[in-house]
Amino acid sequence: MSPLLYLAWRSLRGRVVGWLRLMKQPRYLVGTLAGATWVGLFALRPMLQINRDAALYLVEDVSEWAPLLEFSSALLLLIFVSLWWLWPYGKALVELTETELHLLLPAPLRRRHIIQYAVLRSQWGVLFGAAIVAFFSSGGRLSVFAWRLLTTWLLLTLWNLHARGRGLWMAQLSELPAARAWRRRVLVVGTASLVLMMVAPAIAALVASVPDIQGDVSKTLQGPLSPDWFREHHPALSVLVLPFRWLSRVVLGGLDMELTVVERLGLLVWPALLVFAHNEWVVRSQASFEDASLARSRRLAASQEAGARFLKLKQSQRRAAPFRLRPQGRPELGILWKNLMLAHRTPLTTIGASALLILTAATAAVTWVSLPIWLIGILVVGALMVLVMTPLTAGHQWRNDLRTDLLRAELIRTWPVAGWRLFGAEVAGPAIIASLYATLATGVLLIAGVATRHLGVDDVMLVSDTATALGTTPLGVLAAALLTLIPLVATVATLSATLQNLVALVWPSWVQLGRRRAGSAAHIGQGLITSLGLMVAMTIGLLPGVIVSGTWLLVQIQVLNVALGAWQLPLLGLLTAAPLAAIIAVLIRFGGFLWDRLDPSAELLNTAIPGR
Q: What is the C-alpha separation between 4 and 544, in angstroms, rounded?
């Protein structure tokens, strides 16, 4: 076993050394510092304060809620595990790479040591997850953090081992004689079914005995969910839930400040024994894991290769395209066609017709069926978030543009198309997708407006006063406002995509290239820096249109003393978008200039990921 421990240690050391070497490059060092600063100042401090206040509140009421939480969580865990074992499928997976399998399997190593190495190898992820959970739930107190780290690690390790053991056990059934395999399967299915049959009447009686929740919730629920109640009415089920109660008690024990250190350590005995037993169950398994693990490793490697997404499509789906591409035509349309297929292959006509049909049917439905106010509020808030955030983040959200094609710059440079036309076609992909989402959000807002009009409560959409001032109905002013937003949304989305592609051409090494975004600290920091710069650039780009529209309104209302009409709102939208469209045209020309002079060297397009 010592060679495998040495191998695990060297693998971890290699990751750390590789990461430190990347820190010698300014883009990774600055990105890491920016990401750490943002996480520390804007994410950790507020969350730690919230968790500290919540922890103090929980500690005060832990004695009141502990029995209810302990028993209910144990009961839910029992039900879930029983249902999980009824699922008749499992894979004998041991998470090793193809290189590790080729190295370890021919080596003079015991089978259990190879499996144990795979289990230990997965502990880095388990420890990291446990540390994250403990950090964000400890409220900044060291003692609570240590307890949460230990208990969370035990529970996550137990869950990981149970999943591995179940998969190996299920896979081994196919290697056994048919009669023996069926006996084992019937035994497991019968046991799980018996447990669920015992639970069903208890749950039904529990639901029937729970009165309407009002007043003091804890006193209302503690009766039917207390262990004493179950022990009296369902003694067998109470005994069956007991091992799961010991597990849930480990989590709740950290909230009770009156427990001594010895009492807390006593709570860890049962999960520690379960972890040891599950580990022995996994490493002693006789299931053939070699083929399944090798297939998994090759499948993961294939998913990282070019064309992996295309190979997953069915034959009928491969023929679908966003629009029909003629054999002859402008090459820019071919680039746009390709980029749209990177996001989705559904024809644009199908998307438009389906959205129009659904919105029309929904609009007709809300005139017959009254929607509750809270549902209308949810629709309004969700649609507004999509309407605002989608165009602003169009260049960040969708990467079917130059950030994908730059990895094949040596091929794209041979295409017979002018640089500015190619750049414009690359920008159009994410801009069109973002505009479609935002247009759909305007349709949802229109449905919400019709629903509020049907209820006679126009103040939900905050348009009653505006409609009165413009001399029209609330629904009319809402429709005019949405028509105003559509050109603005399209131009803002195009500006966002244009700026992202410009950054990719000017500083390719500071932008993550390819379809996937890496989640390392350095890349997060780089994204924060570039996003901040892009937001400033977008704000400057919007200023000319805002100034022109503001000047028009000032002259019309203050100088000429002419009231603003609802019909003028779409014209204001076009007037605001016109200067922005001119700026985008200039930026596209500049992007074409940069593309024509781009040097696609290996250093410039380096996309190494820290930690790999």
A: 65
